[in-house]
Amino acid sequence: MEGLYEVFGNLLMRSCERSFMNLREKVRRHTKDIREGERADINVGFIDGSLSFDDRRGVGVFLFSACGLIVDGKSLRMHEFFCTSKSPVPHILFPKFLVQTRGNNLMSIFELMVALSMIRTESAHLILMDGSYISTLLAPAGALRALYRDIRNRLDRLRVQRFIDEVNSFLQEVIEKRFPGILEMKDAKRCFINFLMSSRNIATDFYRRLYHICSGAGIGEVSMDLLNYSNMCVEENFFLFLLDFVLEEAKDKGIAVAWFAKDSDSRFITRGDDHLKWLTDEAFLDEVWKDLSNVYIRISDISSLSPISHGRAAVRSVADKGDCIFQYDLAERFYKEWGGYDGIYVKFLKGPVFQITLPAHFSSVIDRIPSILLPMCEKRTGCPRPIIYVHFKALMKESVARLFADELWFKTPRTEWLIRVMLSRSGRRRIGV
Asked: What are phi and psi of 189, to 5 degrees?
């Protein structure tokens, strides 16, 4: 039996090697050298954020920090545009449902607000966000979509249609009358705090409207599911509204926005090969380019990139296949304009492979980005120095939120027993595991 496994293992390895060599040759043909020796006469913005989270008995306690940096592409001089690491934004997330996923979404909202501030002041001609634009397009979280399906499956067809109509109607009103007011503040931190405060009131109104439709349906207790759904739905719709607003403002001012991923699980290059599709593009390229430096490849040159549709998470009718998360008109407009994307994989000096993605509308600048970033790279890491700087400038220790939450609990009067119970330490913390 061991000999049989060895035979099959050798056959599989030879197949993988053949596939690797064929794909390697194709990638090498499309690999381009980065133009060296030039410095772009533009300002480049870099944005990153960090959160510190502590899981309490009944809530999630967060501290949010963001940093924005401007670099003169000619002189390479850096100056801070925005930073809150010394005065992070606190937030208590309730209800306690997918708190880490929601916290990450709120962090992205904060970062986008910093980008909006850069765009409004025209401080940068190119802005690099942390993460992946493609992952951004694939929002919202799968768990939220599963929650909607659970609610939908407990309603009859008529109530599902009323539910969908109410979601679209309420969110349309919020998008037109309440979301724009949140963005009137020019300071990113004040704007973020304003959203955190406003979202609670909006979600409460949303919950009451949905509960009115679902109550009396004979489907059992649904209030907690609706409370979770309404809160996350408001947060996700504001994120999409803000992303659309930021990209439209950038387009109007001739500013390009891209996303820089230090690590990516994308498989645009390897997904078409049965033997290599388990391998991420970056892992594959680390090997293919191991003897090269200062090179990049455009993803659309080697793989077809289908635009992402709004139909995944926005519906008008009970007959539609998608999930009712985004307000339909907002999602339709956004994905029609911004659902297309492109990107590059790039290797600076002898460093690792990075992924840079951006909306298709800004793809005309994509071949310039590597040469703009190359002069900013550290020789030791092969990574643009501003990327590292904003990361550590925004970074907070995980213990900060724990200390903050402990202080909140300690200072809460004993008469406020319910708040103290919700702010109390988790069972794991109490037993030290």
From this structure: -70, -45
- Supply the pTM of this predicted model: 0.94
- The secondary element (H helix, E strand) that includes residue 26 is helix 2-30
Give the tokens for residue 351: 């460093």
In degrees and rounded to multiples of 5, residue 161 shows phi and psi of -65, -40
Q: How far apart are CA 112 and CA 127, in angstroms?
A: 11
Question: How open is the CA angle 308-314-320, to the nearest 5 degrees?
Answer: 100
Cα–Cα distance, 96 to 103 (Å, whole number)? 11
Gyration radius from the chain CA atoms: 24
> CB 10: neighbour CB atoms within 10 A?
10
Q: Where are the domains of the chain?
A: 31-431
Q: Are 155 and 219 in contact (CB under 8 A)?
A: yes
User: What average pLDDT does the structure give for the chain?
Assistant: 92
Q: How confident is the model over 98-122, as pLDDT tens digits?
A: 999 999 999 999 999 999 999 999 9
Q: Which of 6-10, 87-91, 97-101 has the lowest mean pLDDT?
A: 6-10
Enter the tokens of residue 372.
Answer: 């703009």
Concatenated DSSP letters for 29-57? HH-EEPP-S---SSEEEEEEEEEEEEEBS
